Amino acid sequence: MDNLSKHNDNDSLSGDSDLSFDQTSLQGKSLSVRSSTSQLTGLDEYEDALTYAEALWDHITMDQEELVFRAQDLIEVVDMADKDWWYGVIEDREGWFPAAFVRIRVNQIQIEDDIDTSFAAPLLASPKLRRISIMNKDQARTNVVNEIINAEREYVKHLKDVVEVMSSFHVHFFLHMGHAL
């Protein structure tokens, strides 16, 4: 026998005040549960937020399953499960594309605000897009960090080239000045 049945069999209500107290307590708990549920729903909506990437280079392909785009195109990324190939949408076209050809936009919320919702609604209703996996946030962070590291390496390489050129210029300049004296 469960606790509720025991309570009903062994106890008697002393009056309406006990009943109203229990109802008030239940209403408070119900409100608390609804509040917690709405907060969780808000978190779920945040998890399902759209992710956008900007094309760094043109991607031209003959493969029907791949997404063709030009540099600076804005791509809605819907699947990042594979680190090398992502699935995305541009207007009415969708397909796979190399992750190395794009960079994740930093301010995703601003992009969502800028997009016309009447345009985005039919895309979100697409049955193909319903099977979309949730963005792998760790993979996105890893890609952004790798992009920053690669950019820094290129910068250091260019600085070394500048230092090398300047050093050789100074050596030639002083050698030339020595011969002139």
- Estimated share of beta-strand residues: 5-15%
Approximately how much helix is present in the residues? 55-70%
Task: Count up the helices.
Answer: 6
Radius of gyration computed on alpha carbons: 31 Å
- Kindly state the mean pLDDT as a whole number? 69
Which term fits the overall shape? elongated
User: Which class best fits the helix and strand makeup?
Assistant: alpha+beta
Number of strands: 5
The low-confidence parts are 1-47, 127-135
Distance from first to last alpha carbon: 112 Å
Order of helices and strands: HHEEEEEHHHH
Tell me the quaternary state.
single chain
Which tags fit this structure?
181 residues, alpha+beta, five-stranded antiparallel beta sheet, 14% strand, disordered N terminus
How would you sum up this structure, described in words?
The chain has helices at 3-10, 16-47, 108-114, 117-125, 127-130, 137-180; strands at 51-55, 74-79, 85-90, 93-98, 102-104. Residues 1-47 and 127-135 have low confidence and may be disordered. The longest helix is centred in the last third of the chain and has 44 residues, at 137-180. The chain contains six helices and five strands, in the order H-H-E-E-E-E-E-H-H-H-H.
Short description:
By secondary structure, the chain is α+β, with helices and mostly antiparallel strands. The chain has helices spanning 3-10, 16-47, 108-114, 117-125, 127-130, 137-180, and strands at 51-55, 74-79, 85-90, 93-98, 102-104. Strand 3 (85-90) and strand 4 form a beta hairpin.
